[in-house]
């Protein structure tokens, strides 16, 4: 009789009205078209990917179980009109969907930072989705869910984190193959911090006239890249 290998499940919340929160803080948005704006951040615990350039491995486990109502209360106390839900991979927790609805109901602008490995079709359309498609140097590019190209709308942005010329050429080919320049969402190009000089990436984008927004991770230049809660 064949012995079955145990199946390792990613972190999932058992309750629909709560989430496991790693950290909750107020800062300045460091990325996307919202960069520079005051923003509350809700970082959820757990991720099923192990990207080589991950900067939030501390969020893989641990944290505090909070009801969605508690999270909303904490965010409102920060007195900012914008909140980002990030991780880890926040879409692994079922409670995140009603949490997004609850934050929207309070009149907040809600951003979601998510990997490209989960289809975002169930995310409320009013949420501004920042979908981080995985490039080859991440080691997880085979996990991308390309259905996201049909699930994203004009509020959303597709983020490419570039760590090498190979990543850049791969991303450029993907944009051409799927005609992403004709899609309603925006596209963001940034570098893997300390792996590729931003000037190199900017010059490649200029040379190829790519229809993308070049960006820096502002928070990593303003604060210690290893710091939390910023």
Automatic annotation (TrEMBL):
Main enzyme class: lyase
Residues at which Mg(2+) binds: 56
Catalytic activity: 6-carboxy-5,6,7,8-tetrahydropterin + H(+) = 7-carboxy-7-carbaguanine + NH4(+)
GO biological process, one term: tRNA queuosine(34) biosynthetic process
Molecular function per GO: 4 iron, 4 sulfur cluster binding; carbon-nitrogen lyase activity; magnesium ion binding; S-adenosyl-L-methionine binding
Cofactor remark from the record: Binds 1 S-adenosyl-L-methionine per subunit. Binds 1 [4Fe-4S] cluster. The cluster is coordinated with 3 cysteines and an exchangeable S-adenosyl-L-methionine.
Record-linked Pfam families: Radical_SAM (PF04055)
Top-level taxon: Bacteria
Pathway: Purine metabolism; 7-cyano-7-deazaguanine biosynthesis
InterPro entries reported in the protein's UniProt record: 7-CO-7-deazaguanine_synth-like, Aldolase_TIM, rSAM, rSAM_sf
UniProt family annotation: Belongs to the radical SAM superfamily. 7-carboxy-7-deazaguanine synthase family.
Function: Catalyzes the complex heterocyclic radical-mediated conversion of 6-carboxy-5,6,7,8-tetrahydropterin (CPH4) to 7-carboxy-7-deazaguanine (CDG), a step common to the biosynthetic pathways of all 7-deazapurine-containing compounds.
Descriptive protein name: 7-carboxy-7-deazaguanine synthase
Gene: queE
């Amino acid at each position: 009789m064949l012995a079955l290998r145990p199946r390792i499940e990613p972190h999932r919340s058992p309750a629909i009205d709560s989430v496991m929160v790693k950290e909750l803080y107020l800062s300045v948005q460091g990325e996307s078209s919202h960069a520079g704006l005051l923003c509350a951040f809700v970082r959820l615990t757990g991720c099923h990917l192990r990207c080589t350039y991950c900067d939030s491995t501390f969020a893989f486990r641990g944290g505090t179980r909070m009801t969605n109502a508690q999270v909303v209360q904490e965010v409102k106390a920060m007195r900012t009109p914008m909140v980002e839900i990030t991780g880890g991979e926040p879409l692994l927790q079922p409670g995140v969907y009603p949490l997004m609805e609850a934050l929207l109901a309070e009149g907040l602008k809600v951003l979601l930072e998510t990997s490209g490995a989960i289809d975002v079709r169930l995310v409320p359309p009013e949420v501004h989705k920042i979908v981080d498609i995985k490039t080859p140097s991440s080691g997880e590019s085979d996990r991308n869910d390309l259905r996201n190209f049909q699930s994203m709308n004009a509020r959303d942005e597709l983020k490419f984190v570039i760590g090498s010329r190979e990543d850049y050429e791969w991303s450029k080919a993907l944009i051409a193959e799927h005609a992403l320049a004709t899609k309603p969402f925006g596209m963001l190009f940034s570098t893997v911090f300390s792996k590729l000089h931003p000037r190199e990436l900017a010059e490649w984008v200029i040379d190829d006239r790519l229809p993308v927004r070049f960006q820096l991770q502002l928070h990593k230049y303003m604060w210690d890249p290893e710091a939390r809660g910023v």
